[in-house]
Amino acid sequence: MTQLSSEQLIEFSQGNPKAFEAVFNCFRMRIFYFVKKLIDDKEEAEEITSETFVKLYRIHDKFNTFNNIQAFLFITARNASLNFLRYRKRQQENKEEFINHEEQEIDAAWFAETDIKVEILKRIYEEVEELPDKCKEIFKLAYLKGYSITQIAEKLNISRQTVSNQKTTAIKKLQMKFLDRPDLFLWMLYFLSETRH
Prior knowledge:
Blueprint: H1 6-13, H2 17-39, H3 42-58, H4 66-94, H5 108-111, H6 118-129, H7 133-144, H8 149-156, H9 160-178, H10 182-194
Helix pairs in contact: 1-2, 2-3, 2-4, 3-4, 3-10, 7-9, 8-9, 9-10
């Protein structure tokens, strides 16, 4: 496992994107395999792993030691996994179809519910619109409308793996856009975590 230097830990607590990337690379596969072993679902394990790091970044200023970061990641991932297992159990017991939600218009009104400055929202929205068509469509369905991987796959008549891959591609492209602006990068992570289905 890649080791983290004391400088990287300090920079992470200060919100440095490169330090966050170092933490991510250090723990990502350990968290992923930990979750996958618990829930036996690769796509959902990827989702939970991503969300766990989003939550870590949102409160990065509270962590400046390796052990604290490690403990938070594993506890958060475990709790999310247990929540997923309870959810899946309810779905299996009820055997009910998902309720069809009316599609909502994706426009500036979505951002109006937050207290972020308009110019920051405009930049984020513009970057989403610059994504490749398929990435953009899947990103909006997943993070703006709250569709699950299965729902998106059924709606677009594609495989769950394709949906998962396109979501990952979209997030990576957005991350690259925001690396020069840590504040926008942080807001993007906030939006992803707040709009999780």
